[in-house]
Amino acid sequence: MSQAQYHLTTAGENALMLYFDQRIDPAISALVQQACQLIRAELTDDIIDLLPSYASVLVIYNPFTTDHYQVQAQLRHCLKQLQTGSHTQGKRVELPVYYSEQSGPDLTLIANSKGISIDEVIQRHQAISYRVYAIGFAPGFAYLGEVDPLLQMPRLATPRAKVPRGAVAIADRQTAVYPAASPGGWNLIGLCPVAMFNPNASPVMPVAVGDEVRFVAIDKNEFLRLGGELPEPELPGNKP
């Protein structure tokens, strides 16, 4: 193992941004997770928030208890302990999914474009453990990667005006679960009954950056039993 390379820059009056090599890579994601643990241990109560992403960490500190120069020195000190090749293990999370043409209106599109059956699309989506690389776009929207290369799909040319809560989707080499109803341009393949963001729960999200997610198929009855809700069918002429 060797010491990790990083770049530290100012990101605001009480924030610093830590950058690693800018690519989607499990090894870089592991460095991000390792850095967050070291920073929390070093800065303790001086931290307001840490926002990890694919290859960076935004450090927001309390300007009433410390200052930019002190935080920068503390970060450089603790980040000397970063080691490439080390593996920081997140928790493993299983998310149930009701895969069907009713709950996943783009399953047929993916199957036809790849020359495979809908069952194979579902099988391939379940066969991989996905790393949580980032959380953003909306609270609880976890970017998971990377999908089977055969399932890689571009975003829809025309985004939907409303994607239902719990929609499981694919875009490029990533997959995700929509935590709330919203516009969206990803390819929809199923529905997950698990709440991806609940401000009244602890923790508020079932996954965090660095976790490993596995999707598990369930049938319609199990989906409804777990609290899932099927979207109302679109009426003719109401498509965006």
From TrEMBL:
Residue ranges that the Swiss-Prot or TrEMBL entry lists as coiled coil: none
Keywords associated with the record: Hydrolase
InterPro entries per UniProt: CT_C_D, PxpB
Name of the top EC class for this enzyme: hydrolase
Residues covered by the Carboxyltransferase domain: 6-207
GO MF annotation: an example: 5-oxoprolinase (ATP-hydrolyzing) activity
EC numbers, comma separated: 3.5.2.9
Protein name per the record: 5-oxoprolinase subunit PxpB
Organism: Arsukibacterium indicum
